[in-house]
Design goal:
- The structure is a single chain.
- The chain has one domain (3-235): Aldolase class I (TIM Barrel).
- Helices cover 47% and strands 16% of the residues.
- The chain contains twelve helices and eight strands.
- Strands 1-2-3-4-5-6-7-8 form an eight-stranded parallel beta barrel, surrounded by six helices.
- The longest helix is centred in the middle third of the chain and has 18 residues, at 94-111.
- The chain is globular and about 45 Å long.
- It starts with a helix and ends with a helix.
- The model has no long low-confidence stretch (mean pLDDT 95).
- The structure holds cytidine-5'-monophosphate.
- Residues 10, 12, 36, 124-125, 161, 183-184, 193, 195, 213-216 line the site of cytidine-5'-monophosphate.
């Protein structure tokens, strides 16, 4: 994969106008944009078609987590929108993930389109050991992350979202073909913001990340296109 294919820019803004202005400025260098729950809830599904119509791929980061019937129908709706990546909380369980995969495969075949990649979120990076314990999960963080990543793989999902500190472990245990998407990426010249377990673009790729997600270092830069170019350069 080229650096360009590996970079995902998070459109963490609250209006269609701001999102599309970023897409217009960045699309020469960026192929995939992440639409998360803030932007999607603010603008509705029209934001997906608007970004797609500008020739860009979409990671729809809505982290589905519901009963298998509801989740698989939501995943089918996302497939119909033509997004490239969809994600789920692995804590929704094996049946939820497996049913969603089966439904997406059927839908993509019917539509004759490439199936979106199905990705699991293991434990949110905002959780620490203490927060995890309060939910009743007593395993240590790495063990739990690995267990959920293995469950996602067993259910037929294509990969996981994982922080820079978990990438190596997951890659070692789940192999080279498993997709790993790593947020919390900070070039040395960028502010850390609220991210805790960070890595530079180069480190993330060397550790085994398939994709890296970068938000504020690019989106809030005085010149987002120049910032994206610097990130791409570092990834090489
Ligand atoms: O601005 P920044 O580069 O920190 O943005 C990272 C993006 O990745 C945000 O959209 C954030 O919600 C998302 N993300 C994350 N950590 C996770 C999962 C998603 O930072 N574990």
């Amino acid at each position: 994969m080229t650096s360009k294919e590996r970079l995902i820019v998070a459109l963490d803004v609250d209006t269609q106008k701001k999102a599309l202005s970023l897409v217009e400025r960045l699309k020469a260098e960026v192929e995939i944009f992440k639409i998360g729950s803030e932007l999607f809830t603010s603008c509705g599904p029209g934001i997906v078609s608007a970004v797609k119509s500008r020739g860009c791929g979409i990671f729809l980061d809505l982290k589905f987590h519901d009963i298998p019937n509801t989740t698989s129908k939501a995943a089918v709706a996302a497939t119909k929108m033509g997004v490239s990546i969809i994600n789920f909380h692995a804590l929704g369980g094996y049946d939820m993930m497996k049913r969603a995969k089966e439904a997406v495969v059927i839908e993509a075949e019917e539509l004759k389109i490439e199936r979106p990649k199905l990705i699991a979120v293991t434990i949110l990076t905002s959780m620490n050991r203490n927060g995890l314990k309060k939910t009743g999960i007593n395993d240590n963080m790495k063990k739990e992350v690995l267990k959920l990543a293995a469950l996602a793989k067993e259910a037929g999902l294509d990969g996981v979202v994982a922080s820079a500190s978990e990438v190596k472990l997951i890659r070692e245990h789940l192999g080279g073909y498993f997709t790993i998407i790593t947020p919390g990426v900070r070039p040395e010249w960028a502010a850390v913001n609220d991210q805790k377990r960070i890595a530079t673009p180069k480190e993330a790729v060397l550790n085994g990340a398939t994709y890296i997600v970068v938000g504020r270092p690019i989106v809030e830069a005085p010149d987002p296109l120049a910032a994206a170019k610097r990130v791409l350069e570092e990834m090489k």
